[in-house]
Amino acid sequence: MKGQHKEVLFGLYNDEEVLMSAIRKANKQHLDIMDVYSPFPIHGLDPLLGLEESRLHVVGFIFGMLGTLTALIGISWIFGGSLMFEGDWPTIFGGKPYWSLPAFIPIIFELTVLFCAIGMTVVFYIICGLGFGVNNPILDDRITDDKFCLAFQTSDLETSAVDNLKGFFKSTGAEEVHTRTI
Amino acid sequence: MKQFTFEAKQKNFLIATMGLGLLCLILSYFMEPEQIAESGQHARFWSNFLLNAVFFTGIAFMITFIIAAFTLAYSGWYIAFKRIWEAFSSFMLPGLVMMVIIGIAVYAHVTHLYHWSDAEAVASDKVLSGKSSFLNKNWYLFGTIIIVGVWIFFSRKFRQISLEEDKHGAEAADFGYHRKLRKYAAVFLPIAAFTGPAIIWQWVMSVDAHWYSTLFAWYSMTSWFVAGCALTIMLIIYLKSKGYLGQVTKEHLHDLGKYMFAFTIFWAYCWFSQYMLIWYTNNGEETIYYFTRKSEYPVLFFGNLVINFVLPFLILMRNTTKRRYGTLFFTAALVFFGHWFDFFYMIKPGVFSNAQEAMSHGGEPGHEAAAHTAEHAASFVSGFTIPGLLEIGVFLGFTAFFIFWVFKQMSKAPLMPENDPYLEESLHHEVQAYE
Hints:
The complex is a heterodimer. By secondary structure, chain A is α+β, with helices and mostly antiparallel strands. Chain A has two domains: about 5-40 and about 145-180, 2-Layer Sandwich (Alpha-Beta Plaits), CATH 3.30.70.120; about 55-125, no CATH class. Chain A is about 45% helix and about 15% strand. In chain A, strands 2-3-1-4 form a four-stranded antiparallel β-sheet, covered by helices on one side. The longest helix of chain A is centred in the middle third of the chain and has 27 residues, at about 100-125. Chain A is elongated and about 80 Å long. Chain B has one domain (about 10-410). Helix content of chain B is about 75%, strand content about 0%. Chain B is built from 18 helices and no strands. Chain B is globular and about 65 Å long. The interface between A and B is medium-sized, with 15 and 12 residues.
């Protein structure tokens, strides 16, 4: 999407309840909402916007399993004695066999958690388009503070449709209406 | 429907199941496994009685503890079904009666459930005489009465304040009843934290009188709590199917499911911490506990882990399973049985070896007792190495007794609490928007 500019028409609301009723109205009129910005999570917003459940936890599970396997195979490779490994550096701890599962479980557990946490964080950054060198434009600074924003993309719309959207904002109680190119 | 009515049909069914349980309990008095039959201790009967009395009294105690903890933590979501937990908590009264029966039996040495109750054995045993200031028949009986008595006092107070709040809460200024409840809860919590473990050491851990573990109380109290959650889930789903508890929604059950899931993991954590330290240290008097259980009671040892950790962990991991009544009910039933099974695993092997010891005390030559042990190692003993049909029957009977008591208590007050400051929060409880 680099280099492609979007024109955005957005309205700022003072209250999340007003915003919610505006979204309900927009849904009724089949307006194509680009996004909604809010300083805090709003209860019941996701189903209104038709968002699906995040699949991030599936990623977490896969990375967790990866961590489990890494730990298990790593330990087996070092100490040997099972899982077809000869043992790179077999060591006896407390008179136990080289390969003794109960002693490995804490490490397996820790690596599972580590892989899961790091994997989920990285994937979360990627799917949200965050990270080093990424500059995400903010429509208005106050939506990180006390304003609730409803935004429509107007790049391909005709003037009459844009006017219609402006009328919509006015009728639903938006405090301010702005346009920006991002 | 605000008011729960205990229908005659339910009553009859529960009484019939209780009758079945009583029959099985009486039968287990006479059907002693042959390996320990000569001891004349009726160990199967007494251990069954102890197992179920401890299990259900413990659930009631743990739910009382959770009511106090939730009250102090400003937790509001559970208010919609708090009447059920109050009813659970009142089961400590029959629980006390059952434990006193066992206490008297131990006092009079009618049963050899606990090795330390044998004065002769204690005198010649350095470890047991060292522990005798705690493990003795006086403290067992009177300690039980005092401690459970205190618990019952608080449990009744919680219930009483909650019922008064229903009637007069609206006039009370500044949430007076809730503040009163918080005061009692704050006093109860530290008491419960110290007396709970103490009583578990007495009731359960001391069946293996020579062995001890500092983590044991955590482990078994978690077991009680998970079982309590599971039973709550099953009862709520049942009552909802009968048209009661409209105020309790999927969201509450989702959170209860989360509690069950989280404490299942915590239980496994405790179990493993206890196991790994003992395994690693390899201290003879400690490892013997796990050695006998692993080699002679493999069904209990491994079955316990599968039912209580592997299965619920995998089933409850996904969100959707906690929000479907069918899956949740199935898992709750599994886990409820599983934690009874866990107590079975804690109590039965110890009682079995105590009965064998009693046998060798009874004049039988030592080597013959040793031969019995060897024979036992190679075979399954119904009622000890695996739960037999009688044990299952007794378990069902006690469950029916518990539910009967709970229903009786529930029918005494409206199911929908009023004037609780957190009621509105509970009614609007929502944890997840997606289906």
